[in-house]
Write a structure and sequence with these properties.
Elements lengths: L4 H8 L9 H6 L19 H16 L12 E3 L6 E3 L2 H13 L8 H6 L7 H4 L3 H26 L3 E3 L18 E5 L26 E6 L15 E6 L10 E5 L7 E4 L2 H14 L1 E7 L10 E10 L7 H23 L6 H16 L6 H8 L6 H11 L5 E3 L11 H10 L3 E4 L2 H6 L2 H5 L4 H10 L10 H13 L6 H9 L2 E4 L1 H15 L7 H7 L8 E5 L7 H22 L3 H19 L19 H18 L3 H14 L6 H14 L3 H11 L7 H14 L12 H5 L14
Helix pairs in contact: 1-21, 1-23, 8-9, 10-19, 12-13, 16-17, 21-22, 21-23, 22-23, 23-24, 24-25, 25-26, 25-27, 26-27
Length: 733
């Protein structure tokens, strides 16, 4: 696998089924000086261009334009001519080469020169060790981060997020956590400041007769009892419940029929169960509405009838009771706005959409907000059907293959989705002739395709594989040889549906904004629902928005599309399209950076840089560098690496880019420039860890006399052998 491919795949996550900008991206000429698609493997370099490039690089370094250059005031005596020279590696080596070229003191051998000490006494004050660089880097990063956070707080308003969970797979780094504050709250995950204030009870007897509106959930786990409007019910604790020890069962109160109708919602049972257990409260109620589906939630009213245990009035007891009762009222009030759905995945999808709209409404247009909010007005079956289709591979489906036990009428649900623009329904030959012929053909099985080919008397010369049969039928249809093909296909498949591009794009954005990565989806909720993953209750107060404006988000989405096209092209071995993606990324990488917020610049530590279009384009360019190196187009790879180094002056990836640039320069025979790049890379404070050690090894290997006479101070540490220790455990014996 090419270097950078795995990282790009993680960045893309689940591939989008519709790429709205694909046509415009590939048809618009890229404003790039590179010309990768002309078949010239030298990247436009002739023999003269190579030497010209070599001279240009040499002149740049000789003029003192080095990355991270540090001035020194010390001087040393030349052992050849005795003159005083500046204590800088490049000056010393250049002066020694000039002295030896004049032919003076030839008795000095290379071994003698290597044993000389060229370090002055003041060198300790001007040189930086690895530990010093790390310390300075950490101090600068903290300073810049605090300044960036302070600046953003002035421009962005604070808003709270009442989430019960936060994904541990989120790509937010440790630095970003300083901008996101978590306020622990053991009582409730809802924002109490926005909830109505409830009057505290002065006695436990005050709650008797109060009516609470709630729902019966978990119908599939209850008995098959007949429901009637106004049916009397009673509550009973279920402490032995495996899924939830706070579970409260809802029983029918008819004489002689104690059947379980279901359970109270988990959020309500969490606070109501301690009251029932500790104060022996008894609740009864009635069914207020009947559901359309037997497994849907059932609206009910409950009220406290009596207390079976007499407790003396104490302040501590009353405070605890007040806290629990207040949380019960908060849960009841919040369920009026977001009633529990019949299916968990439907409830999770609604929560995801509402949370994104609440905290990121500035990233959507008015029409997009209306479209997303219309999801709540859909019928229960339509909502369930869309979530089911959205989580499947799709985006095309045969209605005959859609059957879910929780959906009463799939046909009516599909019509509701089609009327609101969430899906496209193809149930007539006229609609199929306009678009979708190729996609519908791919829904057919091989045997069905053979049957249609046999009816039309078409025989594939390339084989009987599915793609060959589809290509044959599609080619014949476009040439007008098979006018009856749409009718035959529709008779075979029946009505077909397709998720609309608008719905697909908007809900992809919603999911991306919620999880902040492309790898997670609604299955992350499943682990929480099953109790496998538990998160503490907290309020999430976000002080800095990741996307400050809509234009930044649209540019990021466009960059993700380019990355996906690049990944798909590599899968299909389409070299021309790969080169096209490299050119597009190279032309847009720095134009997108100019549109960023003034407080988020390359010159400072940008905590949210991974959510910018320029970051995504840099990933594509780096993968393009690996592709060009694999194709032995080192000149083009060198150009791209230099642009990355010039554009991203504060980036932890500079070490790898510098290393690759030095290696590619060596591949084309520019040994001196390769050595200069490696030496100056060691002066860059953003070159760290493994990249720094790799550059040090390159300097030691390439910097042998006569190129360099002075031995670097880190040569001893690089050449030392690290002792390897192996530990054996008893289980391995």
């Amino acid at each position: 696998m090419l270097t950078g491919r795995e990282s790009l795949i993680r960045l893309i996550g689940h591939r989008r089924r519709f790429l709205p900008n694909r046509q415009s991206l590939l048809s618009t000429p890229a404003q790039s000086s590179l010309n990768l698609c002309n078949g010239d493997t030298t990247g436009g370099f002739a023999a003269e261009g190579s030497s010209q490039h070599e001279n240009e690089v040499s002149e740049n370094f000789k003029s003192g334009e080095r990355v991270g250059k540090m001035s020194t005031s010390g001087s040393v005596a030349c052992p050849v001519c005795g003159s005083s020279i500046r204590d800088e590696d490049y000056v010393i080596n250049s002066h020694l080469n000039a002295c030896l070229a004049r032919g003076t003191k030839r008795k000095l051998t290379q071994q003698t020169l290597l044993q000389l000490n060229f370090c002055s006494a003041s060198n300790d004050k001007t040189s930086y060790s690895d530990s010093d660089l790390k310390t300075n880097l950490e101090e600068n990063a903290i300073h810049n981060l605090s300044n960036s956070a302070a600046t953003e707080e002035k421009h962005n308003e604070q808003f709270e997020s009442p989430l019960n969970f936060l994904s541990t797979e989120s790509p937010i780094s440790d630095e970003n956590k300083s901008n996101i504050k978590f306020k622990a709250d053991s009582s409730s995950s809802f924002n109490k400041d926005k909830m109505p204030k409830f009057k505290a009870v002065t006695s436990i007897d005050d709650i008797f007769g109060l009516t609470l509106d709630t729902f019966i959930v978990g119908r599939r786990f209850g008995d098959e009892a007949e429901l009637n409007l106004g049916m009397m019910i009673t509550l009973q604790r279920d402490p032995n419940n495996v899924k939830d020890p706070n579970a409260i069962k809802v029983l029918s109160a008819y004489s002689g029929t104690c059947k379980v109708l279901g359970f109270l919602p988990q959020g309500l049972a969490h606070y109501l169960s301690p009251l029932i257990d500790k104060y022996c409260l008894s609740f009864q109620g009635c069914v207020t509405s009947l559901p359309k589906h037997s497994l849907d939630v059932i609206p009910i009213q409950i009220k406290c009838e009596k207390r079976m245990l007499v407790i003396e009035k104490e302040d501590d007891e009353l405070n605890i009771f007040n806290s629990l009762w207040e949380n019960i009222l908060i849960v009841i009030e919040s369920s009026k706005n977001v009633p529990p759905c019949g299916a968990k995945y439907q409830q999770n999808f609604s929560l995801l959409t509402q949370e994104v709209l609440r905290s990121n409404s500035h990233l959507f247009s008015d029409d997009e907000i209306i479209f997303l909010e219309s999801f709540a007005s859909l019928s229960n079956d339509s909502q369930k059907l869309f979530v089911r289709l959205h989580t499947r591979k799709g985006p095309w489906f045969r209605m005959s293959n859609i059957c879910y036990p929780e959906i009463l009428d799939s046909q009516e649900a599909a019509k509701g989705l089609s009327a609101t623009g969430y899906i496209h329904l193809f149930d007539s030959v006229k609609m199929l002739r306009k678009s979708g012929m190729e996609e519908v053909l791919n829904l057919l099985t091989v045997s069905e395709l053979r049957a249609i080919s046999s009816t039309l008397k078409k025989k594939s010369k390339n084989g009987t594989r599915k793609q060959d049969l589809v290509a044959l039928l599609l080619y014949s249809y476009k040439d007008g040889l098979c006018p009856l093909l749409p009718k035959l296909v529709l008779d075979m498949t029946g009505p077909c549906i397709c998720i609309s591009s608008t719905a697909e794009s908007l809900f992809w954005r919603v999911q991306r904004l919620f999880f902040l990565n492309g790898e997670q989806d609604l299955s992350a909720f499943l682990l929480v629902d099953l109790g496998r993953v538990k998160y503490p209750t907290y309020n999430c107060i976000i002080s800095d928005r990741i996307f400050s404006n809509r234009s930044g988000l649209l540019a990021y989405e466009k960059a993700i599309e380019v990355a996906q096209i690049m990944d798909e092209s590599l899968d299909e071995s389409n070299s021309d399209l790969v080169l096209r993606c490299i050119e597009i990324s190279d032309s847009l990488i720095f134009s997108s950076s100019a549109e960023r917020s003034p407080s988020l610049t390359f010159k400072s530590v940008d905590t949210f840089s991974c959510f910018s279009a320029s970051w995504v384009y840099s990933k594509v360019v780096l993968l393009g560098v690996s592709f060009l190196e694999h194709e032995r187009r080192y000149h083009d790879a060198i150009i791209l690496l230099k642009r990355l180094l010039n554009g991203f002056t504060c980036d932890g990836r500079r070490g790898y880019w510098t290393l690759r640039l030095s290696i590619d320069l060596e591949h084309i025979g520019l040994i001196e420039e390769s050595l200069l790049i490696a030496e100056n890379g060691l002066l860059d404070p953003w070159v760290r860890a493994g990249s720094r050690m790799a550059l040090q090894r390159r300097v030691l290997r390439l910097g042998k006399p006569p190129r360099r006479w002075k031995v670097p101070s880190y040569s001893v540490s690089i050449k030392r052998k690290i002792t390897e220790h192996r530990f054996m455990f008893k289980e391995d014996l």
